[in-house]
Design brief:
This is Craniofacial development protein 2-like. Pfam families: Exo_endo_phos_2 (PF14529). By secondary structure, the protein is an alpha+beta fold. Helix content is 36%, strand content 20%. It has helices at 85-100, 137-149, 228-231, 233-249, 256-274, 289-300, 305-336, 342-353, 376-384, 388-396, and strands at 8-12, 19-24, 27-32, 41-45, 53-58, 63-68, 71-77, 107-113, 151-153, 162-163, 170-171, 174-179, 186-192, 203-208, 357-358, 365-366, 372-373. The strands form five sheets. A six-stranded mixed sheet has the order 5-6-7-8-12-9, with helices on one face. A five-stranded antiparallel sheet has the order 1-4-3-2-15, with no helix packed on it. The protein has a two-stranded antiparallel ribbon with strand order 10-11. Strand 16 and strand 17 form a beta hairpin. The radius of gyration is 27 Å and the shape is globular.
Length: 402
Amino acid sequence: MERMNLNILGLAEVRWTGAGSMKLGSKTLIYSGGHTHERGVGILFDVTTVKGLGSWCPISNRVVEAKPLNLGIIQVYAPISDSEDVEVEQFYEEIEKAKGYVKSPNIIIVMGDFNAKVGDERVEDVVGPSGIGTVNERGSRLIEWCQVNDFTITNTKRQRTWKSPGDRSRNKIDYILIQKRFRNTIKTSKSLPGAHCDSDHILVMCTFQIILKKLRKAKAYPKFQMDLLKSDEKLKDKIAVAVHNKYETLKNISKVEELWSEMKNSLNEITEKNVPKKDKKEHKKWINKEILDLMEERRKSKNVEAKYKDLNRNIKIKCNAAKEEWINQQCQEIEQKLNIDSKFMHAKIKDVSGKKIKCSSPGCIKSKDGTMFMEKEEILHRWSEYDMLRIFLKTIGAKNPK
């Protein structure tokens, strides 16, 4: 994402069970899967875009919907071409369901692996004249859906997005769709063969421009390694002496507000001078420069099959070794802090385990009739309908008071 300067990245075939969100370095991934490690979709947001993420809803293991800023993004993974028609129709019903959660006039973008070929013949306002190959049955169904719902396919130029096993054939089956009335927001939409991601699919990138309300940037305050005060005796004594000396100069202040202000400023000043600042977290804590260099070499060697396979195997070995070494180092730190700093210890355990935050319905709630509410006002109104006292008493096994 960083190399290609992407804000939002749609993912298909995630193959995770359940639904939830997970922090991946500075990025945030939301995902929707089934009961088995098959299919699955997700959307990865960078640190800037995720701040505007209002709500999102896992529809199925083929469809997930999210609302960053004033957009509605639907990431999909369609059934393969030889799937039953019933499964295909269910897939489009799930897209309709996700689309219904995005209120007008928000822009809706549907993107992902559609497993459909739309061909090289122009279809007015839907498909351009510079496509690839011949339209198939799944492609006709996609075009029909676009016509009924007033969507257009943004990336139909001669750029393939998928190659079959053994590279026997190449086709375009991955698309980014947008409502026709908002298509002028699209600046570019194309495949990027150079954005190597070790997949039989090629990244499809779309650049669009919308006018958003300008937000004031919150002031960033430095973070300090305060846990050192529990383990470093010299630093602890140094801080204690500095605080004691400063306190002696504040004894003559009688006004409470003035005393508080002076104490706060003094403590901040002492901390700035004596306590080291925390380092910014790296995106991948265990990936080193050697691995990054090998990845770059692999990307440049994608057309040399033997060299590519050798580099790919070597990278996996290096990654496993580096990750194991990093985990061992973290475990040693956890053991050292076991009886000193429980907060630090639990934070480290969470960091090492990479625990996913699972939830069945994040940012949304169902009404009495099963309709999904995603807007803030609707959610608040729905919560107001609950008898919280009755729910609490039921939870602890008590009876309602008369």
